[in-house]
Design brief:
This protein is α+β, with helices and mostly antiparallel strands. The chain contains 3 helices and 5 strands.
Amino acid sequence: YPLEVIDEIRLTVASSFHTNTRGGVEVGGVFFGTRVGNLLRITAWRPIPCEHKQGDSFELSEKDLRDLARMLEGAKTDLLLKDLTVLGWFLSHTRGDLNLTESDLQAYRQCFPLPWQFTMVLRPGRVGPTRAAFFVRDSYGRVV
């Protein structure tokens, strides 16, 4: 991945984190890029709109999931994305740890079902670096 792409995501996550003193608003986005076998190269991303029905947490509602499905379908005709593949997604967790919640797992299974698609969870800090964890499917389809 180009550092500029990941740095842009990190800045988006960090600025959302600092919107209030309780840990800000959690955000997410879709990774686009190329895939050759098991080699994935992230070259672009787009934010996932979230109506935040559950407060500041990035928990996708049914409407959000429908909008995400439309966005993924529309990417096929987007001039900037049409030659790219949906590689996976990211989301921030501003409270708690770097694990996937049940809601995250449901969205991952529903919207990113291919065995090689991945999830990245980011955890910004008030002081210090943003930490990240990657989740993939093993050969049995379990998320690890």
